Amino acid sequence: MKLSKKVWLIVVIVIFAVVLGILFFIYSGQAKERDQLNDRMSLARTLLPGLTDNRQNKEDELTQAESLLEAGQAQFPESVESIEYDDDLFEIADDCNVSLTKLTASKPTNKTVGAVTYSVSTFVVVVQGSIDNILEFIYALRTGDDFQLPWSAEVNSINMNVSSGAATINLVIYGYKR
Question: CATH fold of 81-176, please?
Fold first, then answer.
């Protein structure tokens, strides 16, 4: 079966039209994608200077914050053992049924004995309660049985007011530094 030239011409035109349709479809899709990418690029170019300035501002703020942090850290001691000792002192007072009415601590200092470094803090503790409970509190401080942390206390002086049921205790706490 032989096809005529007209049929061949129609087949070639149809194939050519299909190929052109496919190419047009691909090209229009790519043109749309290119336009979207150009829009995104324009938006990015518009936002970039603002973001760069914002980043620089944030870096400046970070530098200022770090400077303030360093200044703040210089004002406060690195050691916070006295706060931790306070927890133990309040717990011991609670166990001994006395009220810890005043607690004053000095800034911790370091003391080295041989190869061991101790944190040394001086405390003034005012407690109220019965004489027996106050004596029990003093005994607990001296023996260190209820201490949560590795520390020991040396009681320097006790001023007791029997009529009011109060005692002022001056003590030094030696904490082991790890």
Answer: Alpha-Beta Plaits (3.30.70)
